[in-house]
From TrEMBL:
Similarity annotation: Belongs to the class-III pyridoxal-phosphate-dependent aminotransferase family. BioA subfamily.
InterPro entries (UniProt xref): Aminotrans_3, Aminotrans_3_PPA_site, BioA, PyrdxlP-dep_Trfase, PyrdxlP-dep_Trfase_major, PyrdxlP-dep_Trfase_small
Gene name tied to this protein: bioA
Binding site for pyridoxal 5'-phosphate: G99, S100, D246, P307, T308
Binding site for substrate: W39, Y132, K273, G306, R390
GO BP, one annotated term: biotin biosynthetic process
Gene Ontology CC, one term: cytoplasm
Pathway: Cofactor biosynthesis; biotin biosynthesis; 7,8-diaminononanoate from 8-amino-7-oxononanoate (SAM route): step 1/1
Protein name per UniProt: Adenosylmethionine-8-amino-7-oxononanoate aminotransferase
Keyword Cytoplasm: yes
């Protein structure tokens, strides 16, 4: 690049904190709380002794073997644990190597299922505006075509069908509630009618619906009402489409539900990001027996996908340990503790001129400005206030590691205040 943005060197990380250095030497380091969980993934923090140990133990056995014709205990145990933890019916697991690959695999599953059913003409996907599903080409095709980060590719991508973005949640309920149940009824009904119309107009060519349930992430940090999930389910069933929930960001407790899919069960579920507690890249796609049968009835008989590093044993071993940590702790009250502090701490920013909106869902806090964030000055101010933040577009936001103490959450809140003020000043 001819004009790269500044980067900071990480020289160490433990618990919820990163040690940063601008020169790379240990002499000038600062400690900051990681407000981003390394993009949703490091939910248990860094250098967790149990996760470190899980990697070491597996490395002493073997670090990788091909996953064609061979299998191994970490993959079997992880598959069982995922089937166990996710809603009933999602009994088949495919291990992929990143979130984007998981979305590709999910879309391929849907297409192969439709072929297996003798409907090869069903080749398109229905989604909603404002979404984000990853950076490879099929993922880009279902990401928001204008607002998203892939607009320059629009003439090269498969053309999918976009319905309207689900409406925003009403202003947050009283302190303590983190569930996204507060829905403006009339708006949801109007949205549902428009979404149903788009589906009906294209039903003959649609293979599936793919959405991020309850919270659109990198497309704009947009939480939306639970009732929209039921609409997705009904529309999919009505028109013989499969429903794919991309829970790569929302999975593993982040929204206050272990999986949003507990509210409405999809046919295909994508998981990634926090799956390994942020230690290694790994993703999983879960589906039903019925979809598995449909895929097997297609001309290839099997799902045609086999990445070299599929089911990597180190990644599976650390994912399994991360799931144990998550489910043996009281993650739910931890999420509402962090979410409550974020909401109380960020809500006052709503009245600041230049701030467009403040929203929270689960352990996610979002401040939207009226103009694009000035990232360098916002980042500097956040670090000076003690936290690492990575704003994008008009958003300063956080999804802290679940191990954050109250004090660490308050540090993140203070850093968001500082980042917002610094950006407003720089863009005034
Ligand atoms: C991050 C993300 C992806 C892509 O995952 P990668 O591991 O970055 O490829 C896909 N969908 C959603 C909802 C995501 O948040």
């Amino acid at each position: 690049m001819t004009d790269p943005t500044p980067v900071r060197m990480v020289v160490g990380a433990s618990g919820a904190r990163l040690r940063l250095s601008s020169t790379g030497s240990a002499a000038d380091t600062v400690q900051v709380v990681d407000g981003m969980s390394s993009w949703w993934s490091a939910i248990h923090g860094y250098r967790h002794p149990r996760l470190d140990q899980a990697i070491r133990d597996q490395a002493e056995k073997f670090s990788h073997v091909m996953f064609g014709g061979l299998t191994h205990q970490p993959a079997i145990s992880l598959g069982r644990a995922l089937v166990e933890l996710t809603p009933a019916g999602l009994d088949k697991v495919f291990l992929a190597d990143s979130g984007s690959v998981a979305v590709e695999v999910a879309m391929k599953m849907v297409l192969q299922y439709q072929r297996g059913l003798g409907r090869p003409e069903r080749t398109r996907f229905l989604t909603v505006l404002g979404g984000y599903h990853g950076d490879t080409f099929d993922c880009m095709s279902v990401t928001d075509p204008d607002g998203g980060m892939h607009s320059m590719w629009s003439n090269l991508l498969p053309t999918q069908v976009f319905g309207p973005q689900p409406p925003a949640l009403a202003k947050p309920a009283a302190s303590g509630a983190t569930d996204a149940t507060d829905a403006p009824l009339a708006e949801v009904d109007a949205w549902a009618a428009a979404f149903r119309d788009v589906a009906a107009a294209h039903a003959h060519e649609l293979a599936g619906i793919i959405v991020e349930p309850l919270l659109q992430g990198a497309g704009g940090m947009h939480p939306y009402p639970e009732r929209c999930l039921q609409v997705f389910r009904e529309v999919a069933d009505e028109h013989g489409m499969l429903l794919v929930f991309d829970e790569i960001a929302t999975g593993f407790g982040r929204t206050g539900h272990l999986f949003v899919s507990e509210l409405v069960t999809p046919d295909v579920l994508c998981l990634g990001k926090a799956l390994t507690g942020g230690y290694m890249t790994l993703a999983a796609v879960l589906t039903t027996e019925e979809v598995g049968r449909g895929i097997s009835a297609s001309e290839s008989g099997v799902l045609m996908h086999g990445p070299t590093f599929m089911g990597n044993p180190l990644a599976c071993a650390v994912a399994l340990e991360s799931l144990r940590l998550l489910t043996r702790a009281d993650w739910k009250s931890n999420i509402s503790r962090i979410g409550g502090r974020l909401r109380d701490g960020l809500e006052p920013l709503r009245d600041l001129p230049g701030v467009k909106d403040v929203r929270t869902i689960g352990a996610v806090g979002i401040v939207q400005l009226e103009r694009p964030v000035d990232v360098p000055s916002a980042t500097d101010a956040a670090i000076a206030a003690g936290a690492w933040l990575r704003p994008f577009r008009d958003l300063v936001y956080t999804m802290p590691p679940y191990v954050c103490t109250d004090h660490e959450v308050d540090t993140i809140v203070a850093a968001i205040h500082a980042a917002v003020r610094a950006s407003l000043k720089a863009t005034a």
